[in-house]
Amino acid sequence: MRKIPHIALLIETSREYGRGLLRGVARYQQEHGPWSIFFEPHGLDDPPPEWLRDWDGDGILARVNSGRMANTILETGLPAVDVRGALPGLGLPFIGVDNRPIAHLAFQHLVDCGLRNFAFCGTPRGENPNQDLRCQYFVELVQSEGSECFTWLGSNTHPTTTTWEEQQQQIASWLRTLPNPVGIMTCHDDRGQQVLDACRRAELVVPDEVAVVSVDNDPYLCNLCTPPLSSIDVNPSRIGYESAALLAKLISGEKPKLSTVLLGPPRGIAARRSTDTLAIDDLEVAAAIRFIREHAVEGIRVSDVIARADRSPSTLERRVKSILGRTIKAEITRVRLARAKLLLSETELSIAKIAARTGFAEAKYFCEVFRKHESTTPTEFRHRFREE
């Protein structure tokens, strides 16, 4: 084997997920390389490059999306890792996201918006295992709460002959049949953008009548939407890093213990205006919850929330718990910790500064609360989720 491994990256750059994978691979090779990288921008559905058939390299990282691409990679006989997971039984080790916590995060986010009607909009079954699992897990969560989950997955019959306009009309027709307000999870940002467009066609107001949360958190696509789309950040950089680490082991002759490795949980949810709603009939409770979410990081206490209400403290506390499933104090803590996790993963602020910016009286108390709820310390959390 050469002193410097030659690695081919067959990963598209058209979406944030692929770019995140590449950032993770870059970080790995900067820390453990150098590698000689063979890379040229391409789309997910592009055919395998002609040079790959006779390429004298050492390993391949690929988003395998077709049998043709899979066969070409397998025919090289080189160590390879799949970071797509679209083809079951491919014969290559796969590293990807764990879809169960992704579905749980989406469901909990919609529940926190006060929603009690739920739906899932995805792609035809069998088209992609990851998207199938997101639908399955989300439906199971809704049903476990005693509710019905409405689904729209398109059709396998003539997917290539259905135009954009026809599909948008189909989604709009489906949306009109749903009870509202309704919270919808979509399988990815592309479908989320379609749902928001279909809401306009169906004359449904987002987020008051329809709240939408998607997956992948592509900032360009999410912010092109009207209104901007809330989305789950699945931390693709970590997947890219771990897949590069696995490829390095394969090149050295080590055999993987598992053919499939699922990494999780997701980094969190980027909440934008598509879910900026509180679908709660009790106006006083809705006002209390909104006050918490707007001011929790300022160090407010339960007494500050109760002081704004006309009801007795016990009545307000009981109604909040009935709607959210947790107490006023627990909701304040949840909002603070959500903000703290975002600051830990995206900034270089010290633990003490993060504690101060999220409403905790002192860093020691912040660390105690964080460990209690997250089963890890703030420093360990930062190390685990930091992208670069």
Q: Would you list the SSEs in sequence order as H and E? A: EHEEHEEHEHEHEHEHEHEEHHHHHHH
Which CATH class of the largest domain applies here?
Alpha Beta
General form: globular
Q: The CATH topology of the largest domain, please?
A: Rossmann fold
SS element count, helices: 15
Mean pLDDT over the residues: 91
The named CATH superfamily of the largest domain: Response regulator
Oligomer state of the chains in this structure: single chain
Counted up, domains total 3
Helix content: 40-55%
Low-pLDDT segments, ≥5 res: none
Instruction: Give the end-to-end Cα distance, rounded to a whole number of Å.
Output: 29 Å
CATH architecture of the largest domain: 3-Layer(aba) Sandwich
Q: How many beta strands in the DSSP annotation?
A: 12
Q: Beta-strand percentage?
A: 5-15%
Cα-based radius of gyration, to the nearest Å: 23 Å
Keywords: DNA-binding, Transcription, Transcription regulation
GO molecular function: DNA-binding transcription factor activity; transcription cis-regulatory region binding
Organism: Botrimarina colliarenosi
InterPro entries: Homeodomain-like_sf (IPR009057), HTH_AraC (IPR018060), HTH_AraC-typ_CS (IPR018062), LacI/GalR-like_sensor (IPR046335), Peripla_BP_I (IPR028082), Tscrpt_reg_AraC-type_HTH (IPR020449), XylR_PBP1 (IPR054031)
Topology:
Layout: E1 6-10, H1 16-32, E2 36-39, E3 59-62, H2 67-76, E4 80-82, E5 94-97, H3 99-112, E6 118-121, H4 129-144, E7 149-152, H5 164-176, E8 182-186, H6 189-201, E9 210-215, H7 219-224, E10 230-233, H8 236-251, E11 260-263, E12 268-270, H9 283-295, H10 302-307, H11 313-324, H12 328-346, H13 351-357, H14 363-374, H15 378-385
InterPro entries: Homeodomain-like_sf, HTH_AraC, HTH_AraC-typ_CS, LacI/GalR-like_sensor, Peripla_BP_I, Tscrpt_reg_AraC-type_HTH, XylR_PBP1
Domain HTH araC/xylS-type: 286-384
Pfam families: HTH_18, PBP1_XylR, Peripla_BP_3
